[in-house]
Specification:
The chain is mostly beta strands. The chain has no helices and nine strands. The chain has two domains: about 55 residues, no CATH class; about 55 residues, no CATH class. Strands 1, 2, 3, 4, 5, 6, 7, 8 and 9 form a nine-stranded antiparallel β-sheet that branches.
Length: about 120
């Protein structure tokens, strides 16, 4: 993949590879909801708590699916930081758009473009 922007952050908790990421006072962590203020996705290595985590913030990356995903659909985080298809609503924060279809546990390419998805 070809990310345009990668930034390293301390991990406030363990983060698996290919997960949707948020930032907090303690550093980067896995997102846990569709309304989380997502900033990007973790690289393939992830990080242990207290380690440094590379976060792909813009461009092309890969993410683990938490459910069935169709190509071209906007993606949000599930409770484990995996990507699921967005459902429009107040406060929904997408991480980007699926570039391939996938099922639970699949790692798929995505266009990383954080933003809102509302009705």
């Amino acid at each position: 993949m070809t990310p345009l922007l990668i930034k390293s952050f301390p991990a406030s908790a363990a983060v698996a590879g290919y997960r949707i990421v948020v930032l907090g006072a303690g550093g980067a962590a896995q997102a846990a909801a569709a309304t989380a203020d997502v900033v990007g996705v973790s690289d393939s290595l992830g990080a242990d708590a207290g380690g440094m985590l590379d976060v792909l913030m813009v461009g092309l990356g890969e993410v683990t699916c938490g459910g069935n995903v169709a190509a071209g659909k906007p993606l949000v985080a599930d409770a484990q930081g995996r990507a699921v298809q967005a459902v429009a609503g107040a406060g929904v924060r997408i991480v980007g758009y699926a570039l391939a279809a996938g099922a639970v546990g699949d790692v798929i390419p995505l266009h990383i473009a954080p933003g809102y998805y509302s009705a």
